[in-house]
Structure of Deoxyribodipyrimidine photo-lyase:
Amino acid sequence: MDSASPIHIFWFRRDLRIADNVGLSEALKDGLPVLPIFIFDTDILSRLEDPYDRRVDFIHQAVAALKASFQKSGSSLKVFHGNPLAIFKDLIAEYRVEKVYWNRDYEPDALKRDQEIISLLENDQIKWKSFKDQVIFEGNEVLKSNGHPYTVYTPYAKRWRMKLDQEGLDFHQAKLENLLTFEDERYISLEELGFQKTDMEYSEPIIDLEQIQQYDKLRDYPAQDGSTKIGIHLRFGTISIRECVKVALENNATWLSELIWREFFMQILYHFPRVVHESFKREYDQISWRNNPAEFALWCAGETGYPLVDAGMRELNSTGFMHNRVRMLVASFLTKHLLIDWRWGEAYFASKLNDYELASNNGNWQWAAGCGCDAAPYFRIFNPSIQQQKFDKQAEYIHKWLDEKAYTTVSPMVEHGFARERAIATYKKGLTAAK
Ligand SMILES: Cc1cc2nc3c(=O)[nH]c(=O)nc-3n(C[C@H](O)[C@H](O)[C@H](O)COP(=O)(O)OP(=O)(O)OC[C@H]3O[C@@H](n4cnc5c(N)ncnc54)[C@H](O)[C@@H]3O)c2cc1C
């Protein structure tokens, strides 16, 4: 390859696929050969404390699959490990870069990183183009008629659907023949990145239509295989959201509503980035959390004495996944039964969940604690035993994650009736003080 010939760059981030990748297909239409790149960003990786991280392993395998696909087309994927700004400086020095393409990411850290790259490119008179890819509608596209963002889900979802009816879904095909031709066999190992091999096995996502058709009937029962586990694929873009929405429209309205919840929380984070640190409803930051570290440790370990709570935490600790119904229960238990700040639970989930997504995790934790937009009212306190009766009557899920001894001999760390009264009184006191 002649490094004096002009090229375009496509930068993969949270869009690790070729099919229906908006930015990639646009870059490949734009005349010049395209060099695809991926950066294992040291700024992100250095924040992960545990070297056994399934998400890093997942990305590592997904990037390997991408690289192999490009190699079949006579090209490859250049993979870097380092700080994106420094890597772009090197790329600009090495190639005659005309334009850099990427798909937009809306998280506060990503926006900051992208702004630094934009400044560097503009300084060097290099053009750049970013695209909407990871959502159907981004930040400002679904607003109330007065131009303000929605903070309640139902009207947001109604408007979102109307807009989708009007605009429809667009799919994008990549012209791989326009990739830059080059050879690059080398691929960095997980160990070189500072991580270990985990039990995560990446494979291209397949949407199971039968499962989706049953979704509304089975999704609430943790012992059933009723939800898709597509979250990690949506997080890292190994599946297209447009493909998911098409399937949802054709097969199950409840599943579609869940995909809209994802975008609802993303637009909340976009319009109210303060929620990363603060309660959406600020008055809830007046609550005097008990924040007992020993009680938090019991919750983390799944040793609360409430079998459904404990089974959920053990599922999370051993697999990186937890069923949604149980996520709601353990979050309510932490914030209301134990009166531990929702931010502690949010951070624990962030460290463990394979499908961890800042907007959804934050939004759902604030929902459970009562302090979020459109949240569960503070006096709605799940009774863990009733939840078990309703959703795991035969204790199938519980038996999967708890041994007989843990199930039968550990007594509840706090009595439900007492915890409920204490939570209501504490919330009331905090909210009254905030007035
Ligand atoms: C305390 C708490 C924390 C959570 N943290 C996360 C998180 O970090 N990342 C995450 O993707 N989801 C999170 N959720 C939402 C939900 O639990 C998961 O999306 C879902 O369990 C993932 O399973 P699935 O992939 O089988 O999804 P399915 O049930 O098959 O749903 C399909 C997709 O819809 C989206 N979705 C479903 N439910 C929700 C929801 N309530 N809010 C936002 N999006 C939703 C997800 O992208 C999900 O993958 C959290 C929920 C709670 C109560």
In short: Residues 54-72 form the longest helix (19 residues). The chain has three domains: 1-133, 135-169+208-271, 276-433. The pocket of flavin-adenine dinucleotide is lined by residues 219, 227-231, 234, 258-259, 261-262, 265, 324, 327-328, 331, 349, 353, 355-357, 360-361, 364-365, 368 (CB under 6 Å).
